[in-house]
Amino acid sequence: MMSVLEQLENLLPTLSRAEKLQLLQTVERDLGDDFPGIESRPGVCGGEPCVVRTRIPVWLLEQARRLGTTDAELLQAYPTLRAEDLSQAWAYVRVHRDAIEQQIRDNEDD
C-alpha cells in the first residue's frame, strides 16, 4: 500500500504549473509564518525584503500583482524566480502587509 506522500509524488508530474503553485501555496499556509525564501540584508535593495538569490524586492512583486500581473507573467518576466519564491513572497506580504504597503508608497515617490 502506498503512503500518502508516495501518492502525492506520483500525482505531481500530472499537475500543471498553476496547479503546482496552488499546491505550494496551500502547503505554505499549513506550515505557518516561516519565510525561508525571503531575506533582508543591509546593502541589498536598501535592506528591503527580497527573494533570495535575486535582488527582486517583495514590494515590487506585490505592486505588480496589484496592477493585475499574474504569477505566470511574473515567472516569465523574471526568469530567476521560481513558483515557490512567489508563494513565499505572497505569504510574507500577508504577514507584513503594512510594511510592504509603506515600501510601495516610498518607492512610488522616487
Features:
110 residues, mainly alpha, Arc Repressor Mutant, subunit A, two-stranded antiparallel ribbon, 6 helices, elongated
Task: Provide a descriptive summary of the structure in words.
The structure is a single chain. Helices cover 58% and strands 4% of the residues. It has one domain: Winged helix-like DNA-binding domain superfamily/Winged helix DNA-binding domain (Arc Repressor Mutant, subunit A, Orthogonal Bundle). A two-stranded antiparallel ribbon has the order 1-2. It is mainly α and 110 residues long. The chain has helices at 4-11, 17-31, 58-66, 71-77, 83-95, 97-108, and strands at residues 38-39, 50-51.
Count of runs of 4 or more consecutive helical residues: 6
Question: How helix-rich are the residues, as a percent range?
Answer: 55-70%
> What is the oligomeric state here?
single chain
Assign the structural class, choosing from mainly alpha, mainly beta, alpha/beta, alpha+beta, or little secondary structure: mainly alpha
Write the layout of secondary structure elements.
Elements: H1 4-11, H2 17-31, E1 38-39, E2 50-51, H3 58-66, H4 71-77, H5 83-95, H6 97-108
Antiparallel strand pairs: 1-2
